Structure formats: structure tokens, C-alpha cells
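Inputs:
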Amino acid sequence: MEFHDGIDPVANGGDDMIVPSADVRQHLVVVGNGMAGCRAVEELLARDAGRYRVTIFGAEPHVNYNRIMLSPVLAGEKDFEDIVINDRAWYADNGIELIAGEPVAAIDRAAKTVTSLSGRTVGYDKLLIATGSDPFIIPVPGKDLPGVISFRDMKDVDMMLAAAARGGDAVVIGGGLLGLEAAHGLTLRGMKVTVIHLMPTLMERQLDEAAGWLLKTALEGRGQTILTGADTAEIYGDGKVEGVRLKDGTQIPASLVVMAVGIRPSVALAREAGLDVGRGIKVDDHMVTSDPDVLAVGECVEHDGNVYGLVAPLWDMCRSLADGLTDRHTGYKGSVTSTKLKVAGLDVFSAGDFSGGEGCEDIVLRDASRGVYKRVVVRNDRIVGAVLYGDTTDGSWYFELLKKGEDISAIRDLLIFGQAYAALGASGGGALDPKAAVAALSDDAEICGCNGVSKGQVVACIAAGNGSLDAVRGSCKASASCGSCTGLVETLLALTLGDDVQSGPKTLCKCTSFTHDDVRREIVAQGIRSIPEAMHKLHWSTPDGCASCRPALNYYLLCALPGDYVDDQQSRFVNERMHANIQKDGTYSVVPRMWGGLTNPRELRAIADVVEKYNAPMVKVTGGQRLDIFGIRKEDLPAVWADLNAAGMVSGHAYGKSLRTVKTCVGSEWCRFGTQDSTGLGVKTERMTWGSWMPHKFKIAVSGCPRNCAEATIKDFGVVCVDSGYELHVGGNGGIHIRATDLLCKVATEQEALDYCAAFIQLYREEARYLERTAPWIERVGVDYVKQRIVEDEAGREALRSRFLYSQSFSQEDPWARRAAGDEAELHQHLAEVRPLETVA
Amino acid sequence: MTHSNAVGEWLDIGPVDQIAPGHARTLPVRGGEEIAIFHTLDNQFYALVNACPHKRGPLSQGIVHGSVVTCPLHSWNISLKTGHALGNDEGCVPTIPLKLDAGRIFLLREAVLGKKAA
Ligand code: SRM
Ligand SMILES: Cc1cc2nc3c(=O)[nH]c(=O)nc-3n(C[C@H](O)[C@H](O)[C@H](O)COP(=O)(O)OP(=O)(O)OC[C@H]3O[C@@H](n4cnc5c(N)ncnc54)[C@H](O)[C@@H]3O)c2cc1C
Ligand code: SF4
Ligand code: FES
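Outputs:
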């Protein structure tokens, strides 16, 4: 881009030029009486009050007011008079002509004039365009109905207030900053508000998943209905708005619809005048457009490829602009922005780049009882981003450190606790070490708020021989509940014992100081209902976990909340997300269920047809008594499944941490040695257990006699039929470490065999750690414990069995059928395909 | 977002809401390498050649956390920002400059077409 200095040196004269009357001064005409336009004039007046004659056109019939304070006006916290920035007297005192309520309709750059809608033409020497932004209106049917408005100016607020006075329901489309402030105001004004947001998290451009979840929970607590992942199909109504219909068919009645989905720079005027326009009006570092006599400032401009939607950048722009117009030429260098939500009682702050990544470290503090989440992203000892929820006092401090690029290595350990604490550490003379801060605490300082344990008590407990975190938790209960003081307890261990601290049991993963068992216990105890909530309440040290903890949490929640928990597909390993096994070339294998290893001509034909139709390179009999079709592309999976479904087959879950197969042998129906109907029992068992999600894969077999052709004694649950009944075996494994089963007990009837099986599976589901198969689990807890729970405790067994069956009532739905019907089609489709001209031709 | 200030011709790949946070979608290129476009839970977008530096596992199918994807085949962790394998593993997959504009995803054309299959 060419750089203009914005000044005509001939007409302008030198320093000693005298300005005899207003008429000979250069005429600056401003289009837009908003925040940037008026601020630019203020900056100019501050530098050289007499230099330009100023005329301002404003489309709104008002003096210049503080647009960001429209939210408090809507919420009833302020009146219009309170938010006026410059009253009529200001214009008069500074000799500025304000032409309010008259939009400029055209610019004639050759003649150097502007013409308003009502036909008034005014000449200029310098023109400043500050037209701001236009609200974006999503192009759905009904968008023009009376009662559909945006949230941009005082007129919109007046309309909302009028609607609120009539009461009723309102829908706000858009869960960003503007939408949430509108929703908040309307709620306070007594309307029943539903927020419709396309993305899964609120304010997704400013917040990460964790903070977005906290915000949603808080707003719901205030009575708003928040629908995320919701796409508007139409606004309906006869002559006026009556409601909104979503793409999934949901109808939400409303007498007012506020569209707050985004803004677009208002560039129509500039474009028609032939100025260079990209996303915004293109300007150089001095806010000069492609025409040296036309400047532009505010949200309508594009500088260095960026457009802005917040006020802070405008102030910087206005300074550079005024410098340029008065020959100083400092130049605008772009802005880093921060965001705060103006909803009383909800503190949300974000700044910079919080996407993390290589070389970035996340420092995360979660204080569940106070509802606080703080995350500071550090790269090369400098803050590059921050997200704060619940306690934003230090937002501006982090933002300053970020903008200045200050080296924070000296205060790194205390950074997350905020400015006051970091300063305390710094003033403590070399006490920057958090260890020293803890050492300095008095003996009666409280360490564990949940259990009321003081520092003295923790130290005494450690001195009494409890040399690990776990031992401390077990003995004095410090850090045994919410865990937020874990760091403090660990520091006390280190201070008291030096190198003699015993490392505790393995934590679930590096994102948490909790073990699998801790996490499972707390999910139930605290009634946790989602992954972000678990990460928050259990003080995860990373913003959204890792490939180890996400699947584990997903399973634990699924197990704890059958029928209630919404499975998080993205927390599942590819095979469970695609319902097929990924192969080394990226294709998938497909294994339909064959109940108890039985099949029939119809199934075999359907499989044969699929193999031919989709050119599957291989089909093979598996070790689990069924057929595996190899080499299916992800795009073809739904069609393959539809064909298999049509022949009555469902997913075999050969890919899942779930029930795999139930192997059977021939049994008493045909076999000369068979003692019971092992095939029939196998089919019944598979019908009962299929579809269930488990900590790891789970295999069952039923053999008709002790010859054990179905290899039941190396299965997770095995049945060996004998003349007098059924021997039930558990904890076998034929894999890497072969383990023969333990005998659980012997039962007399088929029904008992099924009941014990269900109870055993549920015990395993509820108590084993994620990715722990039954064999290592039983080695850990002991077979006697399992016997005690399943064999000796009849009521307990019955309770386990019914919990399993209850959970099964939700999970026995064929995942293939849903996909074949078009569910989650995007998982199987490419986004698009690139066909370069040269290869198409 | 990687190198959004790169210069050149940009290909419009479609609206951002086609990829939900935490998900990835694929973009086959005739005569070139398939590209994976990621949307992280932090709402950043990245584009990489859809082949793990280890044994060409389809990265689009991995679990996304932070700005990292865990390869579905042998669990290498690949940085979405740089394409480098993290931790003890070594290797790098090409990244494709990506930018968002007015709610749409753009990829740098020359980078998309430049990645011819070996
Ligand atoms: C297809 C099959 C081989 C075959 O062609 O026969 C097979 C194939 C795989 N087995 Fe297996 N196992 C198959 C029966 C077995 C058996 C035999 C059985 O079930 O009676 C065993 C030993 C019994 C056992 O599990 O205790 C077996 C022990 C393993 C192990 C070791 C498990 C262990 O606890 O040590 C693994 C690795 C793992 O799960 O981590 C494994 C993992 C795998 C995986 C899933 C490897 C992977 O992650 O990609 C293979 C998937 C191939 C695919 O794409 O379909 N497979 N695998 C069998 C499928 C049975 C079915 O119909 O579902
Ligand atoms: C409800 C609300 C809350 C906000 N909260 C915040 C916040 O908390 N923090 C923050 O940083 N930012 C916030 N913003 C954004 C902030 O208000 C804008 O960034 C700022 O107002 C932009 O200033 P501007 O001068 O470029 O545009 P505007 O302030 O919109 O001014 C443009 C003016 O030009 C007029 N105009 C347009 N075309 C013509 C024409 N042809 N002729 C004459 N006049 C014309 C318009 O009517 C308007 O008055 C908020 C915005 C809204 C709507
Ligand atoms: S071993 Fe027993 S169950 Fe198996 S086939 Fe022979 S008799 Fe039947
Ligand atoms: S191919 Fe990606 S880890 Fe092996």
C-alpha cells in the first residue's frame, strides 16, 4: 500500500501561517457522528484547535454517545443522558456544525463534495469516513418481520424497551458478547429469554471450552434458556414475529427477536465512491484511504488486513489520524485487543492468543467452590494470552504484561494468583519461590478449606510418618475432597521431608493430580455432569485435557449417568467415533454382530454383496466367531451399514471398549458331549450385554462341557456347562499376558448365569479404571472381593444387575443404523474436493 | 491460525461452521495430498497434510486437545501449529497457511496444490 501523509503542503502553508477567518480554513467533513468520528475530532482539537473547520454528518438523530453503554441502558443501570459523550454545547463551543439525523448518501471525489439523503451538498478539503459497522442479518425467512431487530444503536434499545414493557418471550440469536448483553438486559426487564447460538460454546471467539461452559451454567442459573449448537431455520409470524424455528424442528415462541450474530464494516458509501475496499475501507498507517484527501477511521476500516469490533483500537487509530492531520505522522501499528462482558455479576475477560501450541505453557487455576477459572498462556517467558472467568481483577494487569511483552520468568510461579500475590512475593526479598510463601504461612493458616485442616495439622501428619500425598489424604483428610489445595500439601511434603517424599499412586494423566479412583468418586459425589465441569471442579491443569483423560472422563460420566449424559464424540478414539476399526492405510474394517457365532444365508448373502459392491479386498473369519470385511473407505461406511442393517445385522462393536463377542460351541443341541444348550445361552447372553460401554473390551464365551471348545476360561466372563449347571469364570485374558479365569461360583439355572453375568459386568463397569481389563482389575482387587460382592451379597448382586439393565435400556441402539440414516454425516464426508484446472483438463 | 498474513491467492473452502470445535474435516486434492482442516476447542483453525509423519496415519481422525492432535494409528502427538511431532518423536508434516474471513475458511492456493503426492 502507498503511504500518504494526509496533508496538502501547498494549501497548508508553514508554521507561521495565520488563520484570519473560518472561511479560509480547510474544511474537514466527518461522515458518522459515532465513537470514532467524534473521538478523531476531539484528538484533532487537542492538537490544533483552530486548524480545520469541522462539519459532522450523523445518521442518528442524537449527539455523540457511548455506544458500549447501550447495554447498561437496556439493563436499566443507566439513562441515555448518562451515556452522552459530547452534548450540544460541545459542538457549539468548538464551532462544529452537527447535521444529525441526515445520512450522507453519496461522495463525489472529483468535485470534493458529499450529498446527504435529503439533498444537502457540502464541499470538503478533507473527508473523514467513520460510518462504523452494520449488524449482520442472517438471511432466513421472516428476517424482515416487525419485531425482528438488531442491537446497534439507541433506536434498537428503544424498541427493545417497548417490547419488554409488553412482556412475553424474547429470542436472541447469537451467543457472543452483544447477544449475551442483550439477553441479560431483556431478562432484567422481565422477558423470558432464549439464546440461540450456532456454536457449541458461548462467546467462542473470546473464550475456551472451560470458560464457555461456566458462563453457560451461570446464565442458565439466571433463568435464561441457552441453546448451543442450534441453527435457525426461520422466523415465523403473521404480520409480526411469533417465534423462531430451528433446523431440528424446535419452535420457540417469541414476540421479539434480537439478531446479534455479528457485524460487517459499513463500506457501501466508500465503495460507491470508488475507494479501495476489502473487508473494510483500506487505510494506511495514517488512516488515509486510497484517495489522499479521504481518511477513514473506526470499525469501518481495514488496516494491515485487520478489522476491529472494539473501541480500544479506535482510540489508537484516532491518535494516529490526528497526528497525521497535524503533521506529526506517528503512524498506527495495529492493536491487540481484550474483551470483557458487561453483565453484572458475571466476570469474563479474555485477551490475546490463547490457542496454546508449541512452546506455549498453560498456567491454569481452577477454584470450583468460588467458580473461578483462570488461564494464562505463556511463551518464551512472555504472556501471549489470557482467559479469566469469575475473577477478572487481574485481567488488566495480564493485558499490560502481554502488550508490553514483559519477561515474567521472575514471577512465573505466582503469576496465576494475580498481581497482589506476585507483588507480595517480589517484596518478600527473594521470597519469589512459592515454597517460601508456603513456608512463611503461620501454623494455624488453613490449608484445606473443605476439611478445615491447618498447616500445623498437615505438618504434624507428615511428621507422623505420612510421607505421600495419598497418605496425608488418608490420615488428616487434607486435599482429600475438592483437591484444590493439592499443590499446597505437596509443597508442605517437600518442605517437611525434602527428597524423602514418596511418590503417590499414578494420576489419571499429566493434566490432573487425581487418580482414576479419585476422579470416579468425585464425579458421583459432586454430581458432575460434563467433561468441562469435571475438568473445572477437579482442577485440571490443562484447558481441555489430552487424548488420555478425555476418553476416560467420557466413559466415567457415561457410566455414572446412564441415559442422561450426552456422549462426547470428540473424546472418543477414532474407532468408537467411526464405529469401525481403522487400518494402517486409513480405511476401515467392518464386523457385523453374529449372535453367539450363529449366522444364516440371508446374513451371509448380505455380507457377500457388500464385499462385491464396495470392492472390499478381504473378508475373513475372526477369532471371535464372525466375519470381518476389510478396506472400506470412511465415505462408504454409512452405505455399507445400511446394506447390512437391511439384512437384520447390527454393529459388532469390534472397535469398542465394550462388549465384543460371545463365543459359543455347539452344545447339547448337536454335540455328543454337550451338557447344556451353550449356543442358546451364548445368544441370550449376547442379546443382554451387547452395546454396553466398558472400561476396556469385554469378551464372553460359553462352552457346552469342560472340553471347553469356546475357550471360556480365557475370557472376561466365561461359562462352562456341566451336568449339574453352569460354572461361572471371570478375569481371563488371552492377550499379551495370558491369564486363566478364576472360578467365581457355580449356579444351577440359565437365568442365574445371566443374572450373575450382568452383575459382574456392572461391578467391572463401576469400579475398574479406564483401560483396565478384567484380568488386571481382578489381580488388583482380588477375586475374593469380587466373590463377596457378587456371590455372597445377594441384594448387592441384584442391585448391580438392575443398574446394568437400566443402563442397557439406553445403550442397545445400533449405532450403525443412526449413521446409515444420515446422523453425523459430516464424519464421513469430505469438506470439499480441490480439482485444480490442470488436472481436470 | 497459521500464517494468516501469507500472500498469494486464497481458495475459499466454505463456511467455518462446517467444522465443529474439536473436529477435523478432510479435503482431497486431485493430483495432490489430502488436507485435514482442524477446529480446536479453543476455536482456532489449522490445516495440515492429512498424513502423520510416522506412518502416514490420517491425522483428521485423531483426538484434538489444545493445539495438538493425537494420531489415530500409534498415538504420536502432532502440533497443529507447526506440523512437528512433539515429545520424543521426530518428524514433521507440512502445514497449509489458513485464514478466516467473514466466516469462511481460506487456504493458500499454492500450498494446497504444491503438496504433490510423493
Ligand atoms: C479381527 C481379530 C483377529 C481375527 O481376524 O481373528 C482381531 C483383531 C484385532 N485385535 Fe484382537 N482380534 C481378534 C480376536 C482376538 C482374540 C481372540 C478372542 O477374542 O477370542 C484375542 C485374545 C483374547 C483376549 O482378548 O483376551 C485378541 C487379543 C487382542 C489384544 C490383546 C488384549 C489383551 O488384553 O492383552 C489386542 C490389543 C488391545 O486390545 O489392546 C487386540 C487388538 C486387536 C485389534 C483391535 C488391533 C487394533 O487395535 O487395531 C485388531 C483389529 C483388527 C481389525 O481392524 O479388525 N486383540 N484378539 C479378532 C476379532 C474378534 C472379533 O470378532 O471381534
Ligand atoms: C451494545 C453494544 C455494546 C458494546 N460493548 C462494547 C464493549 O464493551 N467494549 C468495546 O470495546 N466495544 C463495545 N462495543 C463496540 C463499540 O461500540 C464499537 O467498536 C464502536 O462504537 C465503533 O465506533 P465507530 O465510530 O467505528 O462506529 P459507531 O460508533 O457505530 O459510529 C458510526 C456512526 O456512523 C453513523 N453512520 C453510518 N453511516 C452513515 C452515513 N452514511 N452518514 C452519516 N452517518 C452514518 C452511524 O449511525 C453511527 O452513529 C459495543 C457495541 C454495541 C452495539
Ligand atoms: S467340547 Fe463339549 S461343548 Fe465343545 S463341542 Fe465338544 S462336547 Fe460340545
Ligand atoms: S502413523 Fe501416526 S503415529 Fe504412527
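Remarks. Residues A 665-667, 671, 673-674, 678, 703-705, 707, 709 surround iron/sulfur cluster (ligand 3) (CB under 6 Å). Chain B touches chain A through 55 residues (CB under 8 Å).
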